[in-house]
Amino acid sequence: MKKVYLDNAATTPQDPEVVEAMLPYFKEHFGNPSSIHAFGQKAKEGIDKARKIIAKKIKANPDEIIFTSGGTEANNLALKGIAHTQKAKGNHIITSQIEHHSVLNTARQLEKEGFKVTYLKVDKEGLVDPKELEKAITKETILVSVMAANNEIGTIEPTRELAKVARSHKIYFHTDAVQAFCKIPFDVGWGIDLASFSAHKIHGPKGIGALYIKRGTKIQPRQVGGHQEFEKRAGTENVPAIVGFGKAVEIYNVDELRKIAELRDKLIEGVINKIPKVKLNGPKEKRLPNIANFSFLGVEGEALLMELDSKGIACSTGSACAAPTLEPSHVLQAIGITAIVAHSSLRMSLGKENSEEDIDYVLEILPQAVKNLRKISPF
Amino acid sequence: MYTKKVIQLFKHPHNVGKIKNPDGLGKAGNPVCGDIMWIYIKIGKNKKGEETIKDIRFSTFGCAAAIATSSMVTDLAKGKTISEAKKITRKDVADELGGLPPVKFHCSNLAVDALHKAIQNYEKKKHK
Ligand code: FES
């Protein structure tokens, strides 16, 4: 059966070159980077190189990159670390309604500790308005955290403008750049104090990410022990994964993005032309090149996902039926989509492995799948 | 997460569709996740003269588990007498399917509810 993977916003296949680069660090370069001998130093070289590559990509200094176990840990470290360090200055944090759960649930935990959190509303394209941020700031505000791009609908936030607002009030600005990383221009010089990244969304290994922390930023570590990661994150480094992360960034080919965007547009056009009663969710323009999110009215998303899966097509849904909480996607709700439309949603996220034929195949299978399920539907 | 039986019935559900002028129509909705299930029944009589479910159909706006459980409920009810059909429980359905993930229990409730409501609807009409 043909297989088409359209869930690259969840995770991506690892690039063979990345795997190749990691292998020696499982074998001959197995040393502990904290060791002084040659074995240790060889491993340390691998880490240093990766750190430089990642720093360069976002125009930071290598000592501003802290490796973590992934985007989730980076977000936890950023929010809790700043909140706990700045507690004496104030107890107010601002974020948005469409953040990833690793930001939202961290914010909720901080609320339980006594912090006040404002969740900024977004417009129907998913955009946070810098003016709304300005209005939400109080004397107590210590941190603003707004994602660089959204994982469900692909909205690209006005990060530069948001950072500027925070900076003008001397408030720390953090951004979850996990989905945006490598896909859109990103520069910490925009006034960003902290930013989270993950390797496995860009063809790197799982279990590794990073937090950019601007020089001079005081942050309370979450995990203490040895002196690793500039005393900001203790524990022996995951050397092979770090090396793989560096390689993934090094070989990331921005030219592929144009092809991906073209395929995505072909997909969107085909879906809209071939399938009646379909809605494109999210922004028209300010959208990541790889994400498309649709609602097929009258069709439940999980059932559609399973139907497509049985034909070799992998994607994801914001339907309540697919959520462990049985609640529709908070992102779709935040952009004003009714529960019933969110219920019919399907996210397709493309990657560099996708071809023209893949999209043709989807455009052949999807209309039939929707038709079949509509036959079952009472609507 | 789903058993083979669930997937198989989801892909090839039985008794899908509507019945024109049904003797009973049961509509169940799920306040939790917003799913909707309609069951249509046609009543007949067996040799003993007892009322039976002669034909039964369903339509749903629900997940894969909802589709599979509706298929199973309608199969279980078809040909049964009304009093037998009333005794079908969520557990019967889930057992026949080889189990359901806990988060999907309510989907089987939905199907059973719709069946019971269809029978009620028929009985109400009859006693008018
Ligand atoms: S019908 Fe919604 S979870 Fe099954």
SSE map:
The complex is a heterodimer of chains A (379) and B (128).
Chain A: E1 4-5, H1 16-26, H2 38-57, E2 65-68, H3 71-86, E3 92-96, H4 101-112, E4 116-120, H5 130-136, E5 141-145, H6 159-168, E6 172-176, E7 194-198, E8 209-213, H7 239-251, H8 255-274, E9 278-280, E10 291-296, H9 301-309, E11 313-314, H10 330-334, H11 339-342, E12 345-349, H12 356-376
Parallel strand pairs in A: 1-11, 3-4, 3-5, 5-6, 6-7
Antiparallel strand pairs in A: 2-8, 7-8, 9-10, 10-12
Helix pairs in contact in A: 1-7, 2-7, 3-4, 5-6, 8-12, 9-12
Chain B: H1 4-11, E1 24-29, E2 36-45, E3 51-61, H2 64-77, H3 82-86, H4 90-96, H5 105-126
Helix pairs in contact in B: 1-2, 2-5, 4-5
The complex binds FE2/S2 (inorganic) cluster.
How many domains comprise the coordinates of chain A?
Answer: 2
For the secondary structure, the number of strands of chain A is: 12
* Residue-averaged pLDDT of chain B: 92
Structural class of chain B: alpha+beta
Subunit arrangement of the protein? heterodimer
Bound molecules: FE2/S2 (inorganic) cluster
Strand content of chain A: 5-15%
Query: How many domain regions of chain B?
Result: 1
Tell me the helix content of chain B.
Answer: 40-55%
Label the CATH architecture of the largest domain in chain A: 3-Layer(aba) Sandwich
Question: Topology as H/E string of chain B?
Answer: HEEEHHHH
Distance between the termini of chain A: 32 Å
Rg of chain A, Cα atoms, Å: 21 Å
Distance between the termini of chain B: 46 Å
